[in-house]
Design goal:
The chain is α+β, with helices and mostly antiparallel strands. It has three domains: 85 residues, conserved putative lor/sdh protein from methanococcus maripaludis s2 fold; 85 residues, Efflux pump adaptor protein, beta barrel domain (Elongation Factor Tu (Ef-tu), domain 3, Beta Barrel), CATH 2.40.30.170; 136 residues, OB fold (Dihydrolipoamide Acetyltransferase, E2P), CATH 2.40.50.100. It has six helices and 21 strands. The strands form five sheets. It has a six-stranded antiparallel β-barrel. The chain has a four-stranded antiparallel beta sheet with strand order 3-10-8-5, with no helix packed on it. Strands 7-6-4-9 form a four-stranded antiparallel beta sheet. The C terminus is likely disordered.
Amino acid sequence: MKSLVNAVFGIFLIVAFFDLCWAYNSSAGNAMKANPTPESLIETHAPVRRDFTLTCPWFGMVESKETIRVRALTDGEVLAVKAPDETPVIRGTLLFTLGGPRVESRLKSLMTKVTFLKREISLARETVVMKKMGVSYQLTKKPSLILAKSRLAALQGALAQTEGALKSLRRRLVIRARMDGLFTKRRVSRGQEIREGDILCEIVPLKSLRIVATLFPPQGTHLKGFKAIIHNPNGQNITDTVTTVLPRHTRKGATIIYIEGGSVNRNFSPGETVSGKLVLGVQKGLIAVPVSAIIRDQNERPFVFIKGPRGYIKRPVKTGPVFDGWVGILNGIRETDRVVIHGGYELFYRHFNKIYKVAD
């Protein structure tokens, strides 16, 4: 009986062993299918010669070259704002009217003085006429006539000055646009008290614009006259010209340039933020590989994998310009090399666990 139990137990162990082997082999086979080897993902290609357009990115803002600040010409109160904000206006358009108690008091005082002077002038004229008759009949001496004429002239001068002051005050109470442009940056509102010289708003010409841009060009590059590509909001790039390179720089050392021309005037408005790139030239016949061929390590150092007779060789490179999905290689590879253009990172991380150890 004991031998029969041992035999059954032995058969059970043999069946269990074969089941375990079958399960192991089956799972291993599935793993091989689910995780293809890196070589199946690797694609190599020889470098090619390409021409690269050398560009430098810039960022900027549109501004007007001739912005006019509209100022108050007298003290007073803003009675009305006549032009809608951020709308085009033409020269002579009414923008503001001023007034208020102080202004009314000054107007009333000047008008009262005008009335008084006119009455005094009328009396002075009658006096001059009477003096002339007296002199003609030898009833009045000539110096008396001269004195009457002098007083009349003085009164007439005072009237002209007062009427001029009244006219000037009324004119200063009406603020009009001095040129065509955009009514913008209004600083006052209806009912607000203002002082002479206060800035009320700005008028920005719509056809006298420029882009003030900053960039970091290669040292020694003369930018004036270069073509600037501008990214238009509608998706189509436009071009204009660098007209000025300012002698000063930003705090971070960026160069400041002006981009001007018909494209800027036609497509943008003051205050818009824009970007683009500056075309610096063309570098012809440079050895190039697709951008996907460049691998960077944890220190951002670039390298490529070259297919050799016994595997793949990691080789550092010096990269140059990038354009249209290709990167120029200044040194590090030859035209005869077979460069890994797909699968480089799979090669890089294949031995990741051997290269990087977890700290104890």
